[in-house]
Write a structure and sequence with these properties.
Structural class: alpha+beta
Mean pLDDT: 91
Largest sheet: 4 strands, mixed
Shape: globular
Strand order of the largest sheet: 1-14-16-15
Strand content: 15-25%
Helix content: 25-40%
Number of strands: 19
Radius of gyration: 21 Å
Low-confidence stretches: 366-371, 375-379
Distance between the termini: 12 Å
Length: about 375
């Protein structure tokens, strides 16, 4: 069916899968928390399930209680133990990087972290270097700054660290290392990256002091009890339906229970600046996260400038944004997105390759920092 003929039924509604970033963190924090916890809305996909399997090897019990629901029984961080085998995170970059930080701060817990062939190609030096500054004993077994990683847990030291990149994985890695080892951490980044870890820390009663939105300090004690972790719908998954709704010719889409963390809603900012009508309904707060329903209306999109400060908040949504750009007046241009080269695949190359295959004229910078779509597709 041609998109020009597609019409959405009136009051069409959907629920998207749970947020992957929050799902990973629900496993990590419920493992740090002593006692019984409940996770609901968990994304039962390979990456977060691999994180769950890894922490079950450390002595945490996860019992499936329903679709996306897990009962968790943890001895707390002082009761976690050295696993009998290596921890395999599959293709989960978030899982391995955040877990490496947490495990670095667990005294007496010795682990080896690995993943599939794709994960073993991805850079780990960005976490190894600052963890080493904290006194961590973490090494790349191959010596090339990549996984597998050997971690010998020990008491870490306070550091004041300014990250050279805006990365939620780097930030969360260091936060979890400090939390596991009960030491202070002062952290700063130039642009706000996803702050799910800060929100979950505050939800559990942890001490965090913000100097600016990108500069904060966390202070011990970090002693958590079991809690209920409610995972919202993933805005990255919702993004596909948002674009679909904007490009339709009639009807609306209501996407229920979506996470609306300000560090993740750059997709809404960009699409609205392109002329998209997206309304938020039933907004509330759960587990430290803003949640709401998104109602999406058919809209005439146009080209809009995407500023560099928005890139961290749309890094996972850039591929679907390019589709919206194809159907917008005057096309689409994205810059400063080089981190897309270091995902599980080179996403910029994949976008350019596939768009050229369907006849779209695409310009890609030699420095691999932006791609420019110079032909608008007619509906």
């Amino acid at each position: 069916m041609l998109l020009s003929n597609f019409r959405i039924p009136a009051n069409f509604s959907i629920i998207v899968p749970g947020d992957k970033s929050v799902s990973h963190r629900s496993v990590l924090f419920s493992s740090l928390a002593k006692g019984e916890s409940l996770i609901t809305g968990f994304l039962e996909a390979e990456d977060p399930l691999n994180t769950m399997k890894s922490f079950s090897k450390l002595g945490v019990q996860f019992t499936k209680a329903g679709e996306g629901q897990y009962k968790v029984s943890s001895p707390g961080k002082s009761g976690l133990k050295t696993p009998l085998s290596e921890l395999d995170f599959g293709n989960g970059g978030t899982g391995i990087r955040l877990s490496a930080g947490l495990l670095s701060g667990l005294v007496g817990v010795n682990t080896q972290l690995t993943g599939d062939a794709s994960l073993r190609k991805r850079p780990m030096k960005r976490i190894i270097d600052p963890l080493t500054l904290m006194g961590a004993d973490i090494v790349s077994i191959s010596g090339d700054g990549r996984a597998p990683l050997k971690v010998t847990g020990k008491k870490l030291n306070f550091i004041k660290y300014k990250s050279p990149i805006a990365s939620a994985q780097v930030k969360s890695c260091l936060m979890l290392a400090a939390i596991a080892s009960d030491v202070e951490l002062e952290f700063e980044e130039d642009e706000l990256s996803r702050d799910h870890t800060e929100n979950m820390l505050k939800f559990l009663g942890g001490n965090i002091e913000h100097f600016t939105k990108t500069h904060f300090k966390i202070k011990p004690p970090f002693s958590f009890s079991g809690a209920e972790f409610k995972v919202p719908g993933d805005i990255s998954s919702a993004a596909f339906f948002i674009v679909f709704g904007l490009l339709s010719k009639s009807g609306t889409i209501l996407i229920k229970n979506v996470g609306l963390n300000p560090a993740r809603t750059g997709i809404l900012t960009v699409l609205r600046s392109m002329g998209g009508r997206i309304d938020v309904e039933n907004e509330k707060s759960e587990c430290g996260e803003i949640i709401g329903d998104l109602r999406v209306y058919p809209s005439q999109l146009k080209k809009a400038e995407i500023t560099s400060d928005l890139i961290p908040s749309i890094i996972d949504e850039i591929p679907i944004l390019t589709i919206a750009g194809l159907f917008s007046e005057n096309g689409f241009e994205i810059k400063n997105a080089e981190d897309l080269r270091a995902k599980e695949s080179d996403r910029i190359h994949s976008m350019v390759f596939n768009l050229r295959k369907i006849g779209v004229k695409v310009e890609e910078a030699k420095a691999a920092l932006f791609c420019k779509f110079v032909k608008t597709v007619e509906l």
